[in-house]
Structures are given as structure tokens and as C-alpha cells.
Write the C-alpha cells for this entry.
Amino acid sequence: MDKQTLLDTSQRISPYIHSTPIFTSQLLDEMADAKLFFKCENFQKMGAFKMRGAVNAILQLTAAQQERGVVTHSSGNFAQALALAAKNLNVPAYIVMPDNAPKVKKDAVLGYGGIITECKSTIAAREEAAAKIVAKKGATFIHPSNDLNVILGNATVGMELLNAHPDLDMIVTPVGGGGLVAGTALASHIFGTDCKVIGGEPKVADDAFRSLISGQIETNMAPNTIADGLRTNLGDINFPIIQQYVDHIICVEEAEIIQAMRLLWERLKIVVEPSSAVAFAAVLKNKAYFKDKLVGIILSGGNVDLENIKFS
Amino acid sequence: MDKQTLLDTSQRISPYIHSTPIFTSQLLDEMADAKLFFKCENFQKMGAFKMRGAVNAILQLTAAQQERGVVTHSSGNFAQALALAAKNLNVPAYIVMPDNAPKVKKDAVLGYGGIITECKSTIAAREEAAAKIVAKKGATFIHPSNDLNVILGNATVGMELLNAHPDLDMIVTPVGGGGLVAGTALASHIFGTDCKVIGGEPKVADDAFRSLISGQIETNMAPNTIADGLRTNLGDINFPIIQQYVDHIICVEEAEIIQAMRLLWERLKIVVEPSSAVAFAAVLKNKAYFKDKLVGIILSGGNVDLENIKFS
């Protein structure tokens, strides 16, 4: 991966995404004993960094491919991101969602113009439904995290952080499917000055932590974490990048995630989803490691169901 | 009130406050059928615009007065604002709070270095306790909203809005004690180009609405609104300014306040307190009036008790 590829990516997607603000807080700095720079992807279009990868993946298709459309299976932010990115680029988006997905998520995808196909809630059923659409419509399948163009789009978050603060000592991101941490690692490798990339992961979904130890992709068995965006596993495209460029992964407990999320809401006055809080929770958990450092923290998104959020 | 006085105020307080960002949202614009500019005072120091007036009031005291300290009675944001402003300016702050004030509010004042005096929860008891401190310590009493220097400090919110968007057709603010709407009206009168100032008020605490009709200061009888910052009445210093420069006041129901707050949290991804949502609720309620206009909306603060917030 060279510098020019990342610069081209950033330029390609910039008309379709927000360059999000970076928040700081004296109080949270004092609490963490470090200087923290929160990259607010909760303010990104459709409310999460996923928009960047979705836009980049679609823009890398030929005109003929774009006309036939894109397809993905996701019940989370990537479904919405692909639907909105496709809508803004005049491309059909076919979204495979499990039939038990919350109505609010289906409505969001429909609101962004996505065409939903429902299937049973198993990985096999999702893949089969997506494959059928690929065969029938000639649409291009785009994976939410294990796709190089998606990873490159995600890398622009870290690029913006390092462009604003070139002297960051480390960047911490949540780790789910691995697309964000891999992209951030590429950005840091090329644009950072000895800037480490560290992942935060829920202890009950610590597949990436275990994967880095075993040297092969480990999986989670139906993990029940509040950080619902982080239940997925790594893939064969992002794992080698993570192995090569991610320093280490910090696992955090559920209560630590909720406490970190609460601090972000109360002190930064912003709405972030539980998955976003995992990176900050990792910093608070390992204070000695981050002491006196300049630390970028990627707040990945802000799509929460306000009716179901509980702080106590 | 002349232009120079406002410019001097802005310059005086600028080292001690944040120039807060202005957020926009395509979706909320479509919903309101207008172009909305949300001035995010929830990101202000200590989480509310009150910091501006508190800083200005203290800075207008003589060195001798500052040494003897400041006193106010408040159980809300102004208590915290005066405590923090005083701390940052090395001035003692005596805060009179009712003995039934929530512990979280007392802790916040203590956290900012305020010296708390508890009293019974009546206006008479509060005023008596404050008067005692004035007599004993020689401290200066600063009213949360009915003080010209506080009003001038508050005016800097509208000045920043109009500086960024000189062509605003109107600015809408929540109305509680009247200090914010009065300051905004002064700012608009001097820096706006035919920019109307409109107040939003909870229907169950519609004292300002009634005051503008009757021509005298009306009061609320223990109003039970979720917008707890707006339960107070106007004062003899801000009321004449409001009479002269505020166009009109729109009253909103409690359910409309909650719905507006929810939209702000969900769509802007920011934490605002119920009082902040009243101005936006007023715009959504009178859509025909605001149609196709450029509308500034002041989000006054973001200090909420996350454990007690309910959206359904």
C-alpha cells in the first residue's frame, strides 16, 4: 500500500463524506492522564465511519457495474451506509437482512432507498441470499469489512486525524470485523511518525485478540456484548494487515464499555454508540500505558436506540 | 446599548469561553422546511451558555470586589457557571442551594470549587441566605438572568451566530428567566439585518408569553415542565429589553419538547437538555411561519441526568 493510493482514496470520497471534527476535553484528559483527541465519526453521514468505505467501494466499480448495483448482508451500520452511498451515487443497493432485524434498522435502510431482501438469521442463509442477488441482478457483492476498497475508505479517518495532529503517539479504534482498525493501521503506517495503532475489543467478543495470539482467524460464538457492532469476526483481507501493523489489542468488560460511553455522553455532550466507547474504555483501562501520550481515539458511530439505552 | 459595548464584552470574555460550533442537518431542514443553524452551547464550558454571563459579570467587578467574592442562588446551570467562572478567575464563589437540590448538582458545584450554603427551598429563604453572605463577606450578588452584565455576556451567543451567518431571518431561543432571549435580542438588534428574535417557552411555564400580553411581569405557579431550566420568571432588567426587541413567544407542549429533544439527539448526535429543545420545538410547531427562512436556533445547554432521561 503506498501513500498515493491513500491520497487518491481521500480525494475520491471527499465530495460524499464529512471531514468530521476532533473533540477534546480537559476533564477527560485529566481522568486519563493523557492528551486525547476524539475523532467524531458519530457526526459522519448516516452516523458512522462506514459511509467512507461504502462510498469508496462503489466509486471503484465500473459504470456498468454501478448500473447493475451493489449487494451486502448486514443488519448494522454498513447496511445503511451502503444504501445511502448508493443512493447518493445513483446506484441500486440490495441489502440482505435477517428477518429478525429490528424494525428501526429496516426502516433506516428503506429510508436511504435500499432494497431489502429478508432471510433467516444464519450466516449461511445470508450468504445464500446475497449470492442469489449477485447471480440474478449481476450486482457486485461488497463485504462490510473484509474488502480492500472498504478498508481504504476507512483509512481516511486516521488520515484526517494525523493530518490535524501529525505527532500522535497512538490511535485507538474499536475492533469488530477488522475493517476500521486495518484501515487506521495503514493510515498510521504511512502518515504517522512512529504512531502505534491499538484496538479495543469487548472481552466477550475477543476474537481479534485471540487471532493475533494464535496467528489464525478465530471466531466468536454468539457473543452477547452491548457493543453490537463488534460481534463480527476478522477476514482474510484485513487480518494480514492487522497482523503486520496493529500493535496490540486491549479487551474491556461490558461495565467498562458502559462507563466509558456514559463519560462521552456526559462530558463531550455527544451521542455515541456502545461500540464507539470501547476504544476509550481501553485507554481508561490501561492508563499507565497511555500516560502523558498524545492519543487519537476513533468514535466510530452514533446510531443508538434511545429507548433501549440504559446507564444504570 | 451600543455596538461597542457588545464588542467589548465579546473581547473581554473570549479567553474564558468557547466559541461554540454551529451544526446543520439536511434531514432536520427537510423536516422543518427551513434552513436551520443550531448554535451548540451544550459544548460551552460547564455545558451551558450561562458560562458567558457569569464570566462577564465577574470581570466587570473591581479587583477589591473580586477579592471578596460573588454569590448567587440557583440550583441549576448558573450555580455551576458562576462557580467555574470564579474558579478560573481566582475569585471565591458562594452558592446558595436549596437543601433538596439533587446531590449531582451539589457535587458539580463543589467540583468547580464553589462554596455551598444550604437553605430551605423557598425563594424567601434563598434570598435571605444570599443577603447574609453579602453582608458578612462583602461578596457581590449576581443574579442568574436579571443582571445587565449577565445579559451582555449572553448576547455573545447571538453575536457569534450572526457573525457566521449575517443573513439570518430569525433567531429562536428558549425563555426561562429571560437573560438569554434578552441578550440575543440585543445582539440581533445591533448585528442582525432585520433579524427577528423569537422565544420558545413551555406551555405550562408560559409566564413570558403572558407578560408580553399584559405588559407586566407575570409569574409561574410551581410549573412542572421537563424543561427544568425554564421554570423561572422574568426580571425588571431583562423584561423591558424583551418588550422592546423580542418579536413574539411560541408556547410548546411537554410532548413536543421531548420529541424535539429526541430529534436533536438522534439526528445531530448531540446531548442537549430539555430546555434546549424548546426553541427547536417552537420552530417545528409553527412551520408555516419559518418556511424557507434562515433560522438560528440556540441550543442552550447539555447538562442532563442520563439516568432519569426518558424518551417514551
Residues 242 and 263 of chain A are 29 Å apart (CA to CA). Strands of chain A lie at 22-23, 35-40, 70-73, 93-98, 115-119, 140-141, 170-174, 196-202, 248-252, 294-299. Chain A has a mean pLDDT of 95.
